Amino acid sequence: MDSEYNPQAIEPRRQRAWDDAQLYYTGDTPDKPKYYSLVMFPYPSGDLHMGHMRNYTIGDVIARYHTMRGYTVLNPMGWDAFGLPAENAAIKEGLHPQDRTLANIARMKEQFAKMGIRYDWPREIASCLPDYYRWTQWLFLLLYRRGLAYRKQAAVNWCPQDQTVLANEQVVDGRCERCGTLVTKRDLAQWFFRITAYAERLLTDLDLLTEWPERVRTMQRNWIGRSVGAELEWAVADRPERIRFFTTRPDTVYGATFMVLAPEHPLVAALTVPAQAAAVAAYVAQTRRLGDIERLSTEHAKTGVALGTAVINPFTGARIPIWIADYVLATYGSGAIMAVPGGDERDAAFAAQYGLPVLPPDPPPGATLPAKDAVVYRLRDWLVSRQRYWGPPIPIVYCDRCGEVAVPEDQLPVLLPYAVDFQPGGDSPLARDPAFVHTTCPTCGGPARRETDTLDTFVDSAWYFLRFCDPHNAAAPFDPALAARWMPVDQYTGGIEHAILHLLYARFITKVLADAGWSPVDEPFRRLFTQGMITKDGLKMSKSRGNVVPVDSFVAAHGADTGRVFILFIGPPEAGAEWNAAGVEGATRFLARVWRLYAGVDLGAGSGVRGQGSDDTEAGKAGVTQHSEFRTQNSSLLRQAHATIQRVTDDIARFHFNTAVSAAMELTNALTAYREAHGVTAAYSEAARLLLLLLAPIAPHITDELWLRHGGAGSIHAQPWPVADPALTAAATVELIVQVNGKLRDRLTLSAPLDAATAQAAALASPKVAPILAGRTPRQIIYVPGRVVNVVV
User: 288, 295, 322, 557: least surrounded by Cβ within 10 Å?
Assistant: First the structure.
């Protein structure tokens, strides 16, 4: 055996062996209980750094662990390859988005291999390839036929930097989520998905997701934003129009002293008197430059303009003036509110600013009140149009004779042309390609024009987990029968930044597919884990900040297993952690110590307690009950080894990877001390064997190498996960509390297991109890098994 641990020699050899054995390739039919583990669809940036390693290592540990636990594990990988980041990066580098994206995919696959991350690569998919986006277009048509995809003229969020429309969810504090540019408004004909039709189900079904972080469920509840109240309609004074609005406080209608419309409300122009037209137009233009977050901020000054018209409050008969103000949004309710300054802080601030009256909000005795039976949601329909090149073309054509026509399914995919000027210019680049635009109407055969917007990349990632169940199907997006074998995803892992956009959209699309008879489940992800971010110098790793630790150079210097151990040991995986060079060196030293433990050890000798296999298998039962004399003579080391099995098993199941590594380190220390005192005994070899099995998912290369070098049969990753022997994990002693008439008198340390007779005899013989009894016979002795004896006198 090599005297020194050399990961640079070991790791490429083990990786080739795993690939040759197709160790993690899964067929269509699980031959054991299934386990679907999935890490969120990555964007192919082309260069992974060690900040990325946490997410992928967690997923890899879970997949390897469940394989050893006896599951058929589906652990696929693919690429969220369309979208603005790829397009903008390609423009900046003077490359075509397709060429750059495919090169980046090849590069990232190499880096995954170097990190020891193994996937079911025959299932690989990329959203930018026609065999995938054909079915994204099919999905669009499915929603279109079901009345869930529609086009309308709308004031939309516009990013001047990226030259494209943004969904509400992609605007953060009034700025583009991707580039940080202040967002403006633009009026465009856009495509939407009617996600609001599923608002109630998306909300109530959150209660089913008991294995999701409560933080994520709360974020989705707040985004959906269900409100119960009354929907009212009041007449405009001296005019035919009526204004419909929603209120959560119909009991305050008697305190309404003015009405406020959103500046975007469709009745604003009609209800503005000529004298106020210029002021109203200027205010509307001013408001369009603000984001929703800024408009709703409590620190934002309350401003508005009167339209010069009034509405009749039917409950009081009063004429109350109509204003516009930016603190009312067109996207909530109907874009109008009754203002009750006596009962609402925002209305009160506005009334104080403009000298408007304030009345008590309480209704008079016996007053008639509107019924509270309407429900509205904060959730808005999903805007899916993008005026950019790098995305799936929307499969719609426009015909002067037939109007809006869906592309027939047998004409999919509508291919994205390669030779297009994709520089952003405010319109869709596809509109500049006559060969793409001009087509034939599928209905009448006459001339027609293709839709030139492309789909939001979140559509691609809203169903990819279903395609992984049947990735090569050329006749359908997936076979529902195959989806039923694998869905739902048992473990989904990814960043908290996807808590609203991606996860909400994926839940919506899954429900639509379930309603259409395609998906076997309503909810796609049974269990969700959101990992914390690795930072360096207090900041997220980024090329632009110059604080990245590249995967290639790290693996070349330290080895992948060192990175995996460090990234898992650095802290609780749900919390953020700072990169620490000293911690890296500590991980290196730990693995070198593990390597030295196995000199002279024969893992195939067959001696010792074989604590492996399922608890309910005959082999497992026999393995944990034999060799009682062996257990007794070597109880200290084997007790710690089996206690470590219990700890690591529980910790991995609960995603406490840092404490799982800590437990393995403690067992390593115990093995080192034992060897120095006793040499290589049967007990030592057995405990060392168990340590390798427990470390296998965490440090897969060194464990597989040591296993094979020292007599193990086959790859360690094909071995069953060890099971703790209850006889070895049971406590050797118990502490017995001794009370007299309920008052503590003594604490006794006794051998386990402890029966009632032994416990009572020990309590009565206690030197602190006998003097109190003074020869008297206790009236009663109460025994709490293994814990307390209470002597009543």
Answer: 557
